[in-house]
Structure to design on (606 residues):
């Protein structure tokens, strides 16, 4: 468990909506706030930024109380970098002046990333003289992210920055968000209703429904849970953090390393040591007692059964240990009995399909995987 | 302005024009200065007082100038609530003086300045104000760096409308200011005087000037509005 940096316990009542949440913000990494539209994700961010004056409760971050009882720190004194869904760049200022707006009003600590680095990271150096009206949706959102970061916040709040963009623009921005995820030193709250974005970007996950928190924790643990039907229709999955080992140009396969061994995926996914995240649905993992000698499946690895749990619909969810990581497999009850699965038993896991969650070729791989599974 | 002043002294017929311009500039200036906070408050408040204040601001649009002038005459007169206080303070009466004229013009032209400002402030999305706040800007900072620039068109409209409307006022001036050359004899009164005296030539000269000026004002307003719409 990582160190906790923030604790937000707020409630807000509107005639048609009630928000009542208690969440913890870890001191590092990206915390995804996931839920359907209208579940209160945006309102929660607004409460943290101090934009909701009707909010009751407490907001504490890095030892400072931003709100508690009658104590209410106004939004301009909270060190947050807020990226709005609709960018909200000031239309009467150039991109450069938009970027300066927050920076000139913030205390800049020298050891932080320089403005030039932030501008380069988001690839907006050539846009500085333009007006927001002359930017594409994707460029606007990148400038808006840079503007928020140049405030040198202690907490970054992103409210569905990709929601208003079409698929092409989303794929234009995702690599920048990946880079941000890798280099950001302060925690970030990322609101989205896309589980795909979450799996790719987040380290922690808060799941919300109708103004309430259903669950929160490490992304890997959250996706293994089966009691949250909102996450992928009740289907559990495993998230693996991997690094690229090499690429076989002849077969167009990438070899990836994870804490439990190696895994092979189609397509090229960056250079050696490039970090990637994989999502493996439990139903894409099958089990066999002996290593299959000839199989079309590339990823077959020795595993040990840790536990099993009956699921509805005649299925059993099996928790496996592969090296240092846990992987979930979903098999039929009949297969589970035929294999006589008991804790501690050694067998082989076959992984039918893997979704690579952060790389430029993600789309292609996902599509290929989809074709394979269909 | 000094040039205009010396020019008008050499051409006595232009005295009323100069007086009207001076009245228009001072009135518009004061209205923008004090009307801006009021208009901003009206654009943001959810208070119940908003409706009644809006109605009071709009009143001079429908009120006959003579009615407004009549009440002002009573109020500003040497025995009136404001007039007597002013008399005690300065030893001069407010009625039939330039000072009284300014006060009357402020009331008379108020809606023409406040309403465009209020509309402009209302059209500035709350989203930009919130974004500025999360970027560390205090409310007054947000007002001058975001609300005023985005509502710039409203200030221009307010200034042109306020100035043009003050220049055209007649009834209120006649009631409160009378017809004192160099003091209260503004251009519209001068035109009336010339017509009364059958001096159609002089009346023509001043009337044509006012007509031209009003047209230029309106043209400028619509031209700027159109340009602005194209830019944004």
């Amino acid at each position: 468990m990582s160190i906790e940096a923030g604790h937000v316990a707020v409630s807000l009542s509107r005639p048609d909506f009630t928000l009542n949440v208690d969440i913890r913000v870890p001191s590092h990494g990206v915390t995804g706030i996931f839920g359907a539209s209208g579940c209160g994700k945006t309102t929660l961010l607004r409460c943290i930024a101090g934009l909701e004056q009707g909010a009751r409760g407490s907001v504490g971050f890095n030892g400072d109380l931003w709100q508690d009882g009658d104590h209410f720190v106004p939004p301009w004194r909270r060190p947050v970098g807020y990226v709005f869904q609709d960018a909200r760049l000031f239309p009467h200022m150039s991109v450069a002046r938009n970027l300066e707006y927050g920076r000139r009003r913030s205390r800049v600590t020298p050891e932080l990333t320089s403005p030039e680095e932030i501008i380069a990271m988001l690839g907006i150096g050539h846009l500085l003289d333009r007006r927001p009206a002359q930017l594409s949706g994707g460029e606007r959102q990148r400038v808006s992210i840079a503007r928020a970061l140049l405030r040198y916040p202690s907490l970054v709040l992103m409210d569905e920055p990709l929601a208003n963009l079409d698929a092409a623009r989303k794929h234009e921005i995702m690599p920048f968000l990946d880079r941000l995820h890798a280099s950001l030193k302060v925690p970030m709250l990322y609101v989205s209703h896309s589980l795909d974005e979450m799996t790719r970007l987040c380290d922690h996950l808060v799941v919300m429904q109708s103004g309430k928190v259903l669950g929160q924790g490490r992304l890997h643990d959250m996706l293994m849970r089966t009691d949250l039907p909102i996450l992928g229709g009740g289907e559990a999955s495993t998230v693996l953090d991997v690094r690229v080992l090499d690429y076989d140009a002849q077969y167009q396969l990438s070899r990836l390393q994870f804490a439990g061994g190696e895994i092979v995926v189609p397509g090229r996914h960056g250079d050696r040591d490039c970090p990637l995240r994989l999502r493996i649905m439990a139903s894409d993992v099958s089990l066999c007692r002996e290593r299959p000698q000839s199989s079309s499946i590339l990823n077959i690895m020795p595993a040990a059964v840790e536990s099993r749990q009956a699921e509805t619909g005649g299925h059993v969810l099996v928790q496996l240990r592969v090296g240092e990581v846990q992987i979930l497999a979903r098999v039929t009850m009949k297969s589970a009995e035929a294999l006589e699965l008991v804790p501690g038993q050694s067998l082989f896991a076959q992984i039918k399909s893997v979704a690579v969650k952060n790389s430029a070729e993600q789309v292609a791989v996902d599509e290929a995987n989809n074709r394979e599974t269909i | 302005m000094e040039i205009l002043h010396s020019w008008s002294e050499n051409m006595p017929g232009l005295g009323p024009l100069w007086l009207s311009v001076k009245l228009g500039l001072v009135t518009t200036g004061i209205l923008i200065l004090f009307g801006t906070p009021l208009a901003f408050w009206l654009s943001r408040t959810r208070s119940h007082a908003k409706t009644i204040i809006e109605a009071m601001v709009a009143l001079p649009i429908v009120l006959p100038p003579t009615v407004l002038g009549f009440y002002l005459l009573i109020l500003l007169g040497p025995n009136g609530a404001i007039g007597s206080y002013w008399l005690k303070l300065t030893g001069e009466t407010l009625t039939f003086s330039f000072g009284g004229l300014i006060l009357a013009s402020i009331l008379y032209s108020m809606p023409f300045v406040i309403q465009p400002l209020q509309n402009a402030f209302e059209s500035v999305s709350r989203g930009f104000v919130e974004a500025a706040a999360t970027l560390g800007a205090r409310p007054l900072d947000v007002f001058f760096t975001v609300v005023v620039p985005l509502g710039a068109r409203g200030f221009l409209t307010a200034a042109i409308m306020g100035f043009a409307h003050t220049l055209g006022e007649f009834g209120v001036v006649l009631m409160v200011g009378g017809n004192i050359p160099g003091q209260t004899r503004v251009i519209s009164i001068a035109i009336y005087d010339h017509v009364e005296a059958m001096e159609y030539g002089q009346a023509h000269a001043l009337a044509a000037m006012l007509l031209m000026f009003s047209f230029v004002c309106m043209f400028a307003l619509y031209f700027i509005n159109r340009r602005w719409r194209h830019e944004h």
